[in-house]
Amino acid sequence: MIRTANRLNSVEEYYFSRKLREVRIMLAEGKPIINMGIGSPDLAPDPRVIEAMNKAMFEAKAHEYQSYQGLPELRKEMANFYLQHFGVSLDDNAEILPLMGSKEGIMHISLAFLNEGDEVLIPNPAYPTYTSVTELVQAKPVFYDLNEQNGWKPNFEQLEQHDLTKVKIMWVSYPHMPTGVNGTLELFEKLIAFGKKHKILIINDNPYSFILNNNPISILQVKGAKDVALELNSLSKTYNMAGWRVGMVMGNVQFIDAVLKVKSNMDSGMFYGIQKGAVAALKLGKDWFKLQDEIYTKRRKLIFQLAMKLNCTFDKNTVGLFVWAKLPEGIDSAEAFIDKVLIEKNIFITPGTIFGSNGEGYIRFSLCATEERIVEAISRF
């Protein structure tokens, strides 16, 4: 009998992979499922983006292997994007690496910096991939608490009480997924100081800055951040290009070279047409964000109504693609609650527990559903 690798014993199938399979079965049975679980934008990219990709298909080099570092013009536009929106100056030849989605960056960074037995600080709650990738590379997750009482921000006094001698990486994500709490420069300054003090690589996963957010910021705005920090970003949510798989990682040349060493052994470059489309997307002005926010604002107001129908409470001042809501007192299990809603009302909502134990008692609604579908969901209650 051929056995799988021991590393697979430490991880499970991704929750959404498993749950969406269940949802597909219900759909095949004719159930009128409304999916408010996953943050997959249902809106299209700007027509200019699609036109740029289509036009690129006929260029001479369109179907060849591409550079592991992406097209020079793509890196240049990524640098322009960070300069324009964050005031961060980046060397497009050395401090930016395009990725096939930022999710692959989580794996590449972990492979580049973690040895077996190294420890990784992971927020609770957080994107589950931080934990699964840490375990796949045989490092050890060390969870640090985020909670509503502390505004879903790290408690640095508690962090200092940990034995940090084996910690190599600290994952943060602001705007925070899943709660939607925005970061602050003061928080980022504390994180950079913490990283320098303990020689920990701080990685901010930052894909939600431009959705319903009047104050987009980057951890790289902090003086000296490049000494100990990397930032991941993505076009998936910002430009409705989730299936295109375009992301990037930014930081100093030594860090980027380490990630490139891994990446160059994992793929043979991003498809040329997609890169050309990404260039066009990054050139879009603030009118694009305004248009998206108008759509998401209307949807969010309806989601607030739905949350109130369920007697949930929520913070109206959060940002990003989701609404994080607290279940009413007396409900013991978020997963049991959402399963009941799925079966009885044919509505799929995400339980907070998939993001960590501190997500118990919370649920998350995605804004990736049309106004008509959200109105229909409300009517089912």
Keywords:
381 residues, alpha/beta, seven-stranded mixed sheet, five-stranded mixed sheet, 12 helices, 15% strand, globular
Quick recap of the structure?
By secondary structure, this protein is an alpha/beta fold.
Biggest sheet, strands in spatial order? 2-8-7-6-5-3-4
What's the average pLDDT? 93
Could you give the distance between the termini?
51 Å
CA-based gyration radius: 21 Å
Shape: globular
By DSSP, the count of extended strands is 12
Structural class call reads alpha/beta
Largest sheet composition: 7 strands, mixed
Report the sheet-strand fraction: 5-15%
Instruction: Sketch the topology as an H/E string, one letter per element.
Output: HEHHEHEHEHEHEEEHHHEEHEEH
Work out the helicity level: 25-40%
Total helices: the number is 12
Q: Give start-end ranges of low-pLDDT stretches.
A: none
Please explain how this structure is put together.
The chain is an alpha/beta fold. It contains twelve helices and twelve strands. The strands form two sheets. Strands 2-8-7-6-5-3-4 form a seven-stranded mixed beta sheet, with helices on both faces. A five-stranded mixed beta sheet has the order 1-11-12-10-9, sandwiched between helices. The model has no long low-confidence stretch (mean pLDDT 93).
